[in-house]
Design a protein that fits this description.
Layout: H1 20-30, H2 35-52, E1 57-61, E2 64-68, H3 74-81, H4 88-97, E3 103-107, H5 113-119, E4 127-131, H6 135-146, E5 153-156, E6 159-160, E7 165-172, E8 189-198, H7 200-207, E9 214-217, H8 223-233, E10 242-246, H9 256-262, E11 266-270, E12 274-278
Parallel strand pairs: 3-4, 3-9, 4-5, 6-8, 9-10
Antiparallel strand pairs: 1-2, 7-8, 10-12, 11-12
Helix pairs in contact: 1-2
């Protein structure tokens, strides 16, 4: 495989966009949410990614400072050039639920988009846990968190699975954000990696939570393997009030929607990528 260049961990601001880079970032971020606006933004974004040649940019997005590498990671290119489109409905819903002592778990945190979005809006009493198993992306996640005054964010470098131990992750060649423990498209995976794994119940117990306000889970088709045993074993006081699940139903081996309905959840949001569930 073509291994990526090491992450640049130099001081924030070294890669601040200037000149044409700043102009392109500004243009794409000003594009509207209309069909024409999105088409223009995506064309400009594609040109900018090629012109950058794999180099990162230091920017603010979703209320936080981040160093973003837009090549080969869809999450980062969205955060860098078009944050106005980044899971807008999901973020709007999540923002309405943030309150005092908010407890949020970001499973498949990537470089921290959701975790930092919540941290920028939650008070100092919040507890935010960002879980990311891929070492290269985890390093970027840690760097981004360190550039912000959010002491309530904790990171965990492991995968979540149906049992603790060690698992194999399959790495997508064209999008590092689509790393998965399931082979959902064999032609897209160029390498594999062994990483430690824990169960969701295990990390919740280790963190000592007495409640969970929200969980976002994006594990590229393994959401069922993580959530089904959790709801089967965890006490109801530890069931999240709000659950944002990436919609990977075609990759699931069980009917996760039915399990969530049986647990008292109702669907309150469905977008192209995710489904929002809430338990009264």
């Amino acid at each position: 495989m073509n291994r990526p260049a090491p992450n640049d961990l130099s001081g924030y601001g070294r890669h601040a966009p200037r000149g044409w880079k700043a102009g392109l970032v500004s243009l794409t971020r000003r594009c509207s949410t209309s069909w024409a606006g999105k088409r223009s933004a995506f064309l400009l974004r594609g040109f900018a990614i090629k012109a950058l040649g794999g180099k990162p940019l230091d920017v603010e997005a979703l209320g936080a400072r981040m160093r973003l590498y837009p090549r080969n990671n869809t999450c980062e290119k969205r955060l860098l050039f078009t944050p106005q489109y980044f899971d807008l409905e999901e973020r709007d819903l999540l923002a309405t639920r943030i309150g005092d002592n908010f407890v949020f778990i970001d499973i498949g945190a990537n470089v921290g988009g959701y975790a930092l979005f919540v941290a920028a809006r939650a008070g100092p009493g919040a507890r935010i846990l960002a879980v990311e198993p891929q070492p290269e992306i985890f390093e970027r996640l840690v760097y981004n968190i360190q550039q912000n005054p959010f002491s309530m964010v904790k990171v965990l470098d492991c995968a979540l699975a149906d049992r603790a131990g060690e698992i194999t992750l399959f790495l997508a060649a064209d999008n590092r954000g689509e790393t998965s423990m399931k082979i959902v498209d064999a032609e897209r995976y160029e390498d594999r990696l062994r990483v430690p794994a824990k169960t969701l119940r295990q990390i919740v117990d280790e963190e000592g939570y007495d409640h969970i306000d929200a969980i976002k889970i994006d594990t590229e088709g393994a959401e069922d393997l993580i959530l089904e045993p959790y709801f089967a074993a965890a006490p109801q006081r530890l069931w999240p009030k709000l659950l944002l699940v990436e919609n990977n139903k075609r990759s699931w081996s069980i009917d996760l929607d039915s399990i969530l309905q049986q647990c008292g959840y109702r669907e309150i949001l469905r977008t192209r990528l995710n489904v929002g569930w809430e338990r009264p």
